[in-house]
Amino acid sequence: MTYNVQIKVMPLKDLLDPQGKAVLGGLQNLGLGNVADVRVGKHITLQIDAENEAAAKQIADEASKKLLANPVMEFYEIEFVN
Amino acid sequence: MTYNVQIKVMPLKDLLDPQGKAVLGGLQNLGLGNVADVRVGKHITLQIDAENEAAAKQIADEASKKLLANPVMEFYEIEFVN
User: Fold this and answer.
1) Is some CB atom of chain A closer than 8 A to the CB atom of B40?
2) Name one GO biological process term (chains A, B) (predicted).
3) Mind listing the domains of chain A with CATH numbers?
4) pLDDT in tens, A41-62
């Protein structure tokens, strides 16, 4: 079966996020001063062929650990969609 | 009130996604051949000060249109989290 998996990779909460700071500055220049904090990460969708959801989750987990996220600077969350 | 808003910005479905193709190749080199398709986009979290959810949604919408997403190549989705 084919599973649609969404992986969110975001900078760790304790770390500075220069890209987010830049976006925040840009928004304030556009007059959107009500925005207080911005963080920017990656959103990745995978189509995984697997026997069941547990197997698909394991593949997504391995992909995140080995390639998609850098655990020193980022955390990831895996979500299934239909 | 402060609202936590998540914005997902992804390449349009009809367009090629070179970054996704590169990730797909990388995953196959790592032996994860069960992954069939990859698309890579941005995930942005905003903290918005607004009177109500509708006002916060409008600010997020304006931010997406003016700065975060390029409508020629990308679509966006706004989601509220608590």
Assistant:
1) yes
2) 'de novo' IMP biosynthetic process
3) 2-81 (3.30.1280.10)
4) 999 999 999 999 999 999 999 9
